[in-house]
């Protein structure tokens, strides 16, 4: 059974950082972690490191298996009822539980909220108990980290497509969501420079569109007070102003002295975790790296989600009207 300290846990908050890949979630995780009342390890549901544990490094530069922080977290997790916390896979992902057609059907985005609700209701007798157990496990992990770092707000930056919906339904506390979005042209350029891609620029834009369309649909199911959106471009151009608003949304004092960015932080995720930002500047290399034709094609492919989030920008120039 997963333990809970009701007097302490009731005051704590769970924030989900929703974004598509290469949209600045690692940067945002570093900035959030600079606040002394916020704790995060970024992506908690990912499993890619499981095949690399012999050499996988924490963002602090120490091998995860040798890092004193992770050793302490694993030991403390036992007090929270997480006696089987494996550093290779925390087993916090809703998409990764089980195998076969049932698990695949449950994890798939159907691109229509009503249809997804009907699917979830139909599968509830078969998967409801397991999904609730995952929700409880996520909350126990969050409280473990908050115990270790003496903080009040836990930030989860996992990349599961339907994680907002599942956390809202199965997490035993109220969920808040921060939607971080970056211009699709910047995402295409960053992805093509840093990752192995299949299908080219339009395929990356298609993934961006589907991911953010799914996020937008899930946000429609939340009260407006429980989510907010930050654009990467706005963040880079006004870090202190945007982060002050984000801290207030998280429910922490935005006037508290911040820690140096990267100090005492232990992040998971892609290789960008290993390079704490020393300075923040807007990366718009896409303007010169992508041809005008490619820019137009990826904006068109990104579809409705781009038009919704960047409605106040001149699409041909990427500037505000």
Give structural notes:
Helix 5 (113-149) packs across helix 6 (163-170). A hairpin with a 4-residue loop joins strand 6 (313-314) and strand 7 (319-320). This protein has a five-stranded parallel β-sheet with strand order 2-3-1-4-5, sandwiched between helices. With 321 residues, the chain is of the alpha/beta class. It has one domain (6-183, 226-281): Rossmann fold, CATH 3.40.50. It has 13 helices and seven strands. It is globular and about 55 Å long. It has helices at residues 6-9, 25-33, 68-77, 101-107, 113-149, 163-170, 184-194, 200-219, 232-237, 239-250, 286-289, 292-302, 304-309; strands spanning 13-18, 38-42, 153-156, 175-181, 227-231, 313-314, 319-320.
Q: What is the strand and helix layout of this fold?
A:
Elements: H1 6-9, E1 13-18, H2 25-33, E2 38-42, H3 68-77, H4 101-107, H5 113-149, E3 153-156, H6 163-170, E4 175-181, H7 184-194, H8 200-219, E5 227-231, H9 232-237, H10 239-250, H11 286-289, H12 292-302, H13 304-309, E6 313-314, E7 319-320
Parallel strand pairs: 1-3, 1-4, 2-3, 4-5
Antiparallel strand pairs: 6-7
Helix pairs in contact: 3-5, 5-6, 7-8, 8-12
């Amino acid at each position: 059974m997963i333990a809970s300290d009701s007097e302490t846990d009731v005051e704590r908050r769970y924030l989900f950082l929703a974004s598509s890949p290469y949209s600045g979630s690692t940067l945002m995780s570093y900035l959030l972690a600079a606040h002394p009342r916020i704790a995060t390890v970024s992506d908690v549901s990912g499993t890619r490191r499981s095949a690399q544990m012999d050499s996988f490094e924490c963002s602090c530069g120490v091998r995860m298996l040798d890092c004193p922080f992770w050793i302490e977290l694993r030991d403390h997790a036992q007090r929270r009822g997480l006696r089987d916390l494996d550093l290779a896979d925390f087993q916090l992902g809703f998409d990764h539980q089980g195998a076969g057609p049932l698990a695949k059907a449950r994890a798939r985005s159907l691109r229509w909220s009503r249809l997804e609700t009907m699917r979830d209701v139909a599968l509830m007798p078969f998967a409801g108990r397991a999904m609730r157990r995952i929700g409880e496990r996520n909350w126990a992990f969050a409280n473990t980290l908050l115990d270790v770092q003496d903080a009040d707000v836990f930030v989860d930056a996992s990349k599961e497509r339907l994680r907002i919906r599942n956390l809202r339904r199965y997490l035993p506390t109220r969920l808040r969501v921060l939607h971080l979005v970056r211009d699709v042209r910047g995402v295409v350029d960053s992805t093509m420079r840093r990752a192995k891609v299949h299908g080219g620029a339009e395929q990356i834009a298609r993934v961006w569109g589907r991911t953010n369309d799914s996020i937008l649909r899930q946000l429609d199911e939340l009260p407006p007070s429980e989510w907010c959106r930050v654009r990467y471009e706005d963040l880079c151009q006004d870090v202190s102003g945007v982060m002050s608003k984000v801290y207030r949304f998280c429910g922490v004092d935005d006037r508290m002295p911040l820690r140096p960015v990267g100090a005492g932080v232990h992040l998971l995720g892609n290789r960008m975790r290993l390079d704490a930002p020393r300075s923040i500047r807007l990366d718009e290399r896409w303007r010169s790296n992508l041809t005008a034709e490619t820019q137009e094609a990826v904006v068109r492919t990104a579809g409705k989600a781009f038009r919704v989030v960047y409605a106040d920008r001149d699409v041909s120039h990427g500037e505000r009207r």
